[in-house]
Every structure is written in C-alpha cells, then in structure tokens.
DNA sequence: TAGCAATCAGGAATGATTCCTATTCAATTC
DNA sequence: GAATTGAATAGGAATCATTCCTGATTGCTA
C-alpha cells in the first residue's frame, strides 16, 4: 500500500526542485498534498487526499486540494488518471480498438494498430486480478486544438 | 463524423437480437438512444445523446438516457470510455507504466510490461493529433472483488 | 386485449467540483 | 529581520453531471 521510503524521498526532492524552477510557492498545504499522493500506490481521489491531509492541517479546504492537484497536473508534476474531461463517454464499437484523447478539448477517436503485440494481454496485468479488456490510451493534442493554440502565441 | 450506413445497420440488427436474447424490452426510447450512439464516431456524453434523441422523442427524460446507457454497458452491448468510477484520480508516478482498473470497486494499480512494443507509440495514433503520452488500460475484476462475488452466488 | 413487470417522465436530491471574496502568507528586497 | 506584494488560502455558496423517487405508461405474453 505504501511506496518505499527512498522513492518517496526522491519524489519529494524532485518536487521541491520543480516548484522552484516553475516559480510555484512552497506552501505548507501544497507540500502536504503532494506528499500524500507521493506515498500512495492507490491513485487516490481528491476527497481522499483532502481527508488525509486534514489530519495534519485541520483547516485545509477542499478547494485548495482541488486547485493544487489541477495545477500540479497542468505543470506536469503529477498526472490525472483517465481523461480529464470527466463526463461519462460511451462507445458502441465493441471490437478491439484504441483511443486517442485530446487533453484540451476532450475529443476521443478510435484507432486500430497493426502491431499485434499491443493486442496481447501482458502477463503483468494479471497481478491484481482477472483482466477483461485491454485498450491503449494515447493522450495528446488534436489537430484542431493545435491550430487554435498556435494562433494564440 | 458518421459511421458508414452498412456498419450502423449491422449494429442495429445485432442490438435487436441481443436485446431479445437478454429479455430487454425494445422500447422506442431504448432504440433511439442506441441508434444515436451507433451512428456517432465521437463517443458522445449522455447529455449529448439526450439532446439529439430529443429531436425525435421530445419528451424523453435525462434519467431514461442515463439509465439505458448504464444498463446497456452492464449488459455488454456498449462500453463506457475510461473508468466507470468517475471521480478524478491522481498519480505521482511520472515514469512509463500501465494501469489495471477494477470495474467493480474502482481500484487502480500500476504495472510495468517487459514487452517493449507496448511502450512504442503506434503510428496510427498520430492520425488525430500530436500524441503526448501512452498508457495501456486494462479493465478487469480485482482479487478482492472476485472473492467477494464468488461468495454471493 | 388483459395483466403485469419493465420502463418511463418529471422533478427533486445528491455528490463532486468549481467559484467567489476577504484574508493570509512565501519569497524578495532593503 | 521588517516591509512589500502577488500568489495562495479558507470557507461557504454555486454549479453541473448524475441518480433517486413516484406515479403513470407501455411492451410483451397468454
């Protein structure tokens, strides 16, 4: 359930360094939010992190937790599991296929890979349970968003 | 933007057949909800489907759309993109890794694959934009849920 | 075509996330 | 080590997607 101490310490050191490089203030709250994520193997939700950090910083607000997690994800110091545009999205294509997801606008498109290795269940996946389905999730910036963004700079 | 007519017709036929096999009533609403998903390439959200179906069935309720989409996903006639447990989940592990996601309890765990082909960006992924990250998403039932469920039957 | 279980409509409730605003604080400078 | 200042915070209100509730409707079977 816990990440080994030496890895956590490495993550914390890199985090401090990255915050300074990116001119993010090292607030008590920010540090504890990151630490709580860095020690956990379970990919906790924001509310879980809030609950845990509150044991040490009893007045920390939900908003601070959400704000920091989003900010850190934006700066590439942590990542958000799945798609960030979080409404349920549905799919009638039940055949083997993969997804390209645009991190800016939430566009999702199917693609198919000619590389059959990608369609094979890795044995390591069985460590945690019985696999049922397999999909490659590629995050990126779609053509539309790329064009739009280029104009902005 | 649209799926070719012959594929849509094939999907509709299979859908009718599957509903009968599974003793799901063929209501007007259910049919139109599925049809709207079957013709779309964009993995629409529930609200989008609701808006579109309403053009033909003006009194259809949101709940009906949500209820049917969830039911059809449960029966394996459609699928939900991403994780069904939809709270944001965070990750401090920025190295290359993959995810095992339990469809019952939402457990997420990292695993690593020795197969390097899985770590290579498929060229087909570039069709829709500039890829940034790559991850294998394996859905399944975790050990804990499997044990619990076996007891129930 | 009658009966019944499944399904539905509409509105209220829930729960996660974000917004608002006055206050606090980390970091820089002197 | 005090002053300054823009970034960050707390707390509560607001929003938005999703689900629940209840009474009415409808597909299916006989």
Task: Provide keyphrases for this structure.
three-stranded mixed β-sheet; about 150 residues; globular; DNA-binding; alpha+beta
CATH topology tier name of the largest domain in chain A: Arc Repressor Mutant, subunit A
Total strand count of chain A, please?
A: 5
Shape of chain A: globular
N-to-C order of helices and strands of chain A: HHHHEEEEEH
| Greatest contact between two chains | A-B, 72 and 72 residues
Oligomeric nature of the chains: homodimer
Radius of gyration of chain A: 19 Å
Q: Name the beta content range of chain A.
A: 15-25%
**Portion of residues within helices of chain A:** 25-40%
Number of helices of chain A: 5
Task: Provide the CATH top-level class of the largest domain in chain A.
Answer: Mainly Alpha
The number of distinct structural domains of chain A comes to 2
Based on the structure given, which CATH architecture of the largest domain in chain A is correct? Orthogonal Bundle
Q: What is the CA–CA distance across the termini of chain A? A: 44 Å
Explain what you see:
2 copies of one chain form a homodimer. The first copy, chain A, has 153 residues and is of the alpha+beta class. Helix content of chain A is 39%, strand content 19%. A 3-stranded mixed beta sheet of chain A has the order 4-3-5. In chain A, helix 2 crosses helix 4. The longest helix of chain A is centred in the N-terminal third of the chain and has 17 residues, at 5-21. Chains A and B meet through helix 2, helix 3, strand 1, strand 2 and strand 3 of A and helix 2, helix 3, strand 1, strand 2 and strand 3 of B. Chain A binds a DNA duplex (30 and 30 nucleotides) through helix 2 and helix 4.
């Amino acid at each position: 359930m816990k990440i080994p101490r030496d890895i956590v310490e490495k993550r914390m050191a890199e985090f401090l360094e990255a915050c300074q490089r990116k001119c993010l203030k090292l607030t008590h709250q920010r540090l504890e939010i990151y630490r709580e994520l860095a020690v956990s193997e379970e990919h906790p939700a924001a509310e879980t992190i809030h609950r845990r950090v509150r044991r040490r910083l009893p007045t920390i607000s939900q908003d601070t937790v959400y704000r920091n997690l989003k900010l850190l994800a934006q700066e590439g110091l942590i990542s958000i599991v799945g798609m960030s545009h979080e409404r349920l999205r549905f799919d009638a294509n039940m055949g083997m296929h993969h997804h390209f997801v645009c991190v800016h606008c939430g566009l999702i498109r199917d693609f198919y890979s000619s590389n059959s290795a990608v369609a094979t269940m890795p044995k390591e996946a069985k460590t945690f349970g019985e696999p049922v389905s397999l999909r490659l999730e590629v995050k990126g910036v779609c053509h539309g968003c790329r064009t739009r963004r280029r104009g902005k700079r």
